Amino acid sequence: MVEGLGERRIIEILLRQLEVMPGVPVPLGDDVSAIDLNDGRLAVMKTDMLVGRTDVPPGMSLWQAARKAVIMNVSDLAAKGVRPAAILASLGLPRGLTEGDVEQIGRGLNDGAREYGAYVLGGDTNEASDLVISCAAFGTCEKRFFMRRSGAKPGDLVAVTGPFGKTAAGLKVLLEGLPASPKVRETLVNAVLMPRARLQEGLALAQTRAVTASIDSSDGLAWSLHEISRASRGGFTIEKLPIAQEAEEFAEAHGLDPAELALYGGEEYELVITVKAELWKRVEEAVKKVGGSLTKIGLATREPAMLFKGKEGAVPIEARGWEHFKPHSK
Amino acid sequence: MVEGLGERRIIEILLRQLEVMPGVPVPLGDDVSAIDLNDGRLAVMKTDMLVGRTDVPPGMSLWQAARKAVIMNVSDLAAKGVRPAAILASLGLPRGLTEGDVEQIGRGLNDGAREYGAYVLGGDTNEASDLVISCAAFGTCEKRFFMRRSGAKPGDLVAVTGPFGKTAAGLKVLLEGLPASPKVRETLVNAVLMPRARLQEGLALAQTRAVTASIDSSDGLAWSLHEISRASRGGFTIEKLPIAQEAEEFAEAHGLDPAELALYGGEEYELVITVKAELWKRVEEAVKKVGGSLTKIGLATREPAMLFKGKEGAVPIEARGWEHFKPHSK
C-alpha cells in the first residue's frame, strides 16, 4: 500500500505506538477488539474501511459497495461467534454524487445490516476524493463462547465453511475481462459483488465450544491459515484444497492454476477454523443444522510448517494474499 | 459538501433509507448511538471521520491530526456523559507517507485516547488519495445518567463549558495568515491544533441529573443551540455571548464581528447544555469540582425562536456553522 511501506510494516509501526489496555480480553491484531462488560459478556467491535479505488471493482453498484462495507465487518464478528447488533458508517463522498447515488449507499448499508439482523444506528458524512465507507460493527457475546484465533492445537482438524477461488476468478472476469460461460460467469461475478458473511455458521460454531481457533478468510485462505498458525504457534498440513467447481472450470479454460485461485485469493468470507478432532461430529452437525456445511481440509501440526500435501508431494503454502486487485497490499 | 447536495440533505436522504431498531435507546441523528445492554447500562458508540483535505489546516502535524480524530469522537461521548473505553481507527493513507509519518499517526491516536483514559484497541489500514482517519469511540454508561439533546424545557438555563471564537479566529490565522500578537496567536492557533474534549465536565454534569439537554459544539455554538432546539421543540433567548477574550481582541484588530466568530465558528469542543433553573447551583458546583467552569448564557423558551438579546435589541441566531474551512458543509 503506502509506497515503500507494505501494509504489514505499517500495521507493525502503528501497533508499536499503542499502549495496551490492562487485561484486554482480545489481543491487538486479532480480527476484532473487545471490552469486558464484567458480567460474563464481552462488548465486541470491529472497523474496516472500504475504499472505492481498491475495493470496488468495475460492475459493482454503489448499493453493492455499501452492502459489502457492512459484510466485511459482519464477517469478522461472525468468525468470533458474535451477532452484530449495530453498524455505524462514516462516509467520505466524492463530489458529483447524485441523490440517487446517496440513496443507493444508504440502502446498501441498511440492507447489509438487516441481512444479518443488525441495524445502522449512526454515522458521519464528509467530502473526500475517494469513495470511502468506513463501517464499525458492534455486538455482545458471552465470554465463554467467544472464538479466538490462537487456540489451535496439534491434531486439531482444519475446516472451512465453503469452497474457495470464486472471488479470485470473478475478479479476473471483472477486471481483466476473461470470458466464462454464462452460468459460471454469474456464479463467479456474484461471489465478488454479493459476498455473504457466515454469521449463522459462526454463531453455531461458537455454541459447540469445540472450535479452538477461528478467523474469516477475507485476506485469502493461505493468509488465514498463516494467521491462525502465527497466533497458535503451530503449523498446518492441508490435504484437500477446497476449490469451488466453477473456479476449477474457469482455471482450466484459461490455463490458470486453480490452487493459486483458492489459496491466494481474498475478499472471500468463509470461516477457517480448527476443531478438536474428537468433537468433529458435533461441530459438523451444528453447522448442518443452520443450513451450512463444513469441509475438513487438513490437520494442525506441532511443527510450524505450512504444507499442502497433494498428489505431487508436499508444497509449502506461502504467506501471501490476493495481489492483483490491491497491488500493494501485504 | 457533495456538489449540489448539502450535508444536511445528504444526511436526510441517508436516514430515510434506514430501518429503525425497535426500542432504540437514542434516536438516529443524535450525537451518539446506543444499544441497551439490558442491565441498566447502555453501550454507547460514535464514529466521526477526519479528512485531511477539509479537517487538517496548514500547520497541523500528523500527530495532531490523529489526536484530533480521537478528540472529535471523545467529545461526543463527553456530551452524553459517557466515559470512552475503546477507540478503533480506520485509516486511509496516501502514498508517500514515511515511517515517521505513520509513527506520528499511531502516537497521535494513542495519545488522544490515553488523554481521556481510553485505549486504541484496533483498526484497519488502506491506501487512499486523501488522508482519512475514521475513529469509532465506544463506552458504557448507566442509562439513568445518559444526557440527551431533547429534554430542554421552557425556563431551563442554557450554559456552556467555556468561551467561543478562538478556533474560528485561529483558522483565520492559519488559513488566511491574519496576524496577531504572539500571545494571542498562540492561544488561537492552539485552539485549532490542540482541541480538548470536555470529558470531566460531561461526566460530572451527567452525575447531577439536572441537565435536561446536552450537545458538543463541534459544529458551532449557533448550530448546537439549533440542534437542541430542534430536538427539544423550543427556542432560546441568549443574553450573553460567551466570547473568548483573545477572539474579541483579534476581531477588533481586524475589523471582524466577534459575535460572528463565537456563534458561527465550529471545531470547538465545548459542551452546550440546558439545566433546570432551580438546580443551577448544584450543577455549577459539580463542574467546578472537576476543575471546569460553567457560564450561563441564556434561557430556554416555549416559542421556537432563537434570539440573541444584546444591547442593540434582539437579533436572530441563524442555523449555520463555520463555512470557510469546510466551504460546502451545511
Specify the biggest β-sheet of chain A. 7 strands, mixed
Hey, roughly how much beta strand do the residues of chain A contain? 15-25%
CATH topology of the largest domain in chain A: Phosphoribosyl-aminoimidazole Synthetase, Chain A, domain 2
Largest binding interface between chains? A-B, 82 and 82 residues
CATH architectural arrangement of the largest domain in chain A: Alpha-Beta Complex
State the end-to-end CA separation of chain A: 8 Å
Helix proportion of chain A: 25-40%
The parts of chain A where pLDDT drops under 50 for at least 5 residues are 323-330
Based on CA atoms alone, the radius of gyration of chain A comes out at 19 Å
Shape of chain A: globular
Assigned CATH superfamily of the largest domain in chain A: PurM-like C-terminal domain
Quote the average pLDDT of chain A: 94
Give the helix tally of chain A.
Answer: 11
Strand order of the largest sheet of chain A: 7-9-6-10-8-11-12
Order of helices and strands of chain A: HEEHHEHEEEHHHEHEHHEHEEE
By secondary-structure content and strand pairing, the structural class of chain A works out as alpha+beta
